[in-house]
Amino acid sequence: MLGILNFSAIDSLFWHDLFMIVSGVALVLFLISAFFSFFSKSEASGWGNLFSKAGWVSFWLGMGLGIFYLVWRGLETGHPPWQTLFEVLSFCAVLVYLSYFVIVLVTGMRDYKGAWRGIANLMTAFALSAAVILLYIALKKDKASNDLPPALQSYWMWPHVMAFIFSYATFAVGLVAVLCYYVIKLFNRQAAIKTWLNGFDDFSFRIVAVGFPFMTAALMMGSLWGQDAWGNYWGWDAKEVSALVSWLVYLIYIHLRLVGGWRGEKLFLLLILGALAIITCFLVFSYLPESQSSMHKYAE
Asked: 149: buried, middle or exposed (CB in 10 Å: 19+, 13-18, 0-12)?
């Protein structure tokens, strides 16, 4: 652990590494708590409760470190810290925390007991694993800060990027929830678990209901930004089309649920497809040949 942190230079990279380490510790604590909570006979005490409390302390610490890192990085670069892919991935990891924090407040999952606590902590561990993976991938990218090109020197940058990344982080939590659903269904048959699984369809829909308006707003602001920067609202750029495909998948999900009356696992498959579309747009796109001519390719 000490080999990762460079104490001779306390800069934004130091806080990035510390953020990743604390996130990893919280991930392990929640996994251990979930294991004990599923199999313990005690509802309110025992090892599951102890590791859960330690996990939530690490969670709040990690979220604070992530926000502190963003502020420090922004002061270092002199502009919003989400231009390069290193910065965007790190920013997305912070927003995984923030979007999950909203879900924690809405559901009250921090106070769950017994098997319900096991469900909450397993899902929290999965969410934190997404943040850790993003931070680890970011380490492989160029960490140098760059000056903003003319197209990015716009008042649209703050709201457009923040809305997109928040929606992506929220949908990442949705994917985490779906994976948690299948894992719990496969390995656990307790009555409390079955009750939770039966209500999971509404739970997953609420996650989409939070993220979809932000994605819609981000697309609209991107169109207005394109008119301001390049003289057209929509240029059928490969990145634009990729983002539109992601949006359409979630639109179809909402339509089939509200109008078509779909419920259950066939809708969950659409959530997985939507997450794959976002991963393609967000991470895989820069490796595709079409990205080389994209107006949205500024830095690796």
From this structure: exposed
- C-alpha to C-alpha distances, 270 to 21, 164, 200, 252, nearest whole angstrom: 33, 19, 15, 8
Cβ(127)–Cβ(96) under 8 Å?
yes
pLDDT tens by residue, 190-242: 665 666 667 778 888 888 888 899 999 999 998 888 888 777 888 787 778 88
Q: What is the pTM of this model?
A: 0.78
- The verdict on residue 30 lying in a domain is yes
Q: Which among 102, 132, 147 is the end of a domain?
A: 147
Whole domain around residue 102: which residue ranges?
7-147
Split into its structural domains, the chain has a count of 2
206 in the same domain as 98? no
Cβ(158)–Cβ(80) below 8 Å: yes
Q: Are 48 and 33 in contact (CB under 8 A)?
A: yes
- Burial class of residue 283 (count of CB atoms within 10 Å of its CB; 0-12, 13-18, 19+): middle
